[in-house]
Specification:
single chain, alpha/beta, Rossmann fold, 13 helices, 9 strands, 15% strand
């Protein structure tokens, strides 16, 4: 038996990679899994299951090599702080992985990783993938579809207003975070079977206009679709108490949607799960209850 865990997962106190660890523990003994988290107290549930808990913070790079030591595979979660320099944080994590001798780096990216994506995280994901490609270490980029639970706010307060009013529309492969987490665990357990960019999306990409029709069916009342002027939408966000920097950050999502950045679909997710992935309809059904 190895003295060190085979797989180390960062960000395990968050919903995505926490669910990935849960899925890994259904496939591997706890002795082969460790988590590296900013707040070890929040990872107590994993410690109770026999998972080694290490402290690891991308913003504290000197301690990262020790947090990543011994890993055959390291799953790096992307930074979720819109105000942070995500690429610099990811660079620190990749450098630490190289120092620690990690054999494969996996990264939670996004299907819309592109240098010209109006949505800022897509540009960060692209830059991070470039760093991985230049690292010289085998790597896998998990290009997840846009997470379906975010429809709760990105579709706006349609349950109250009866209108899905957004400043841009286009196809989006709304993908359940739970499905993406399970797929990540399958890929980690495959021990390197997936290399480079790996697209993980739901099989359909409905528009907001199409989702308005779905919401009508689910709610039993007419839900309209309305495309708003961008500045009118920003003004409405500010009037509702949303900070301007966050409103403009989210506007980039709708601009990317209209530009087709989230339109791609891929059958791989269903193949990894061995079942039909959850759909945007499933996500809307949850919000109508």
């Amino acid at each position: 038996m190895k003295d060190e865990p085979v797989i180390i997962v960062t960000g395990a106190t968050g919903a995505l990679n926490g669910a990935t660890v849960d899925q890994l523990l259904e496939r591997l003994p706890a002795s082969e899994v460790a988590v590296a988290v900013r707040d070890t107290a929040k990872a107590e549930r994993f410690a109770q299951r026999g998972v080694e808990v290490r402290r690891g913070d991308y913003a504290d790079p000197d301690r990262l090599p020790a947090a990543f030591a011994g890993a055959d595979q390291l799953l790096l979660v992307s930074s979720n702080d819109p105000a942070a320099d995500a690429t610099s944080l990811h660079r620190a994590a990749i450098d630490a992985a190289l120092t620690a001798g990690v054999k494969r780096i996996l990264y939670t990216s996004h299907q819309a990783a592109a240098p010209d994506n109006p949505f800022a995280p897509g540009r960060d994901h692209f830059a991070t993938e470039q760093l991985l490609a230049a690292s010289g270490v085998p790597w896998t980029s998990l290009r997840n579809g846009f997470y379906a639970h975010s429809l709760q706010w990105l579709a706006g307060p349609w349950r109250e207003t009866g209108v899905i009013a957004v400043p841009g529309d286009g196809p989006v492969s709304w993908t359940a975070r739970e499905d993406a987490a399970e797929a990540a665990a399958v890929i980690l357990a495959s021990d390197g079977a997936y290399d480079g960019p790996t697209t993980i999306t739901a099989p359909e990409a409905p528009t907001f206009a199409e989702l308005a029709r779905v919401a009508s069916e689910l709610s039993g009342r007419t839900i309209r679709y309305q495309q708003m002027d961008e500045q009118d939408w920003i003004a409405a966000q500010l009037a509702a108490g949303q900070p301007e920097h966050m409103s403009r950050f989210l506007l980039g999502f709708y601009q990317a949607t209209q530009g087709g950045f989230f339109a791609g679909v891929d059958p791989l997710l269903g193949e990894l799960l061995g079942r039909q992935p959850r759909s945007a309809r499933d996500a809307l059904q949850v919000t109508t209850r």
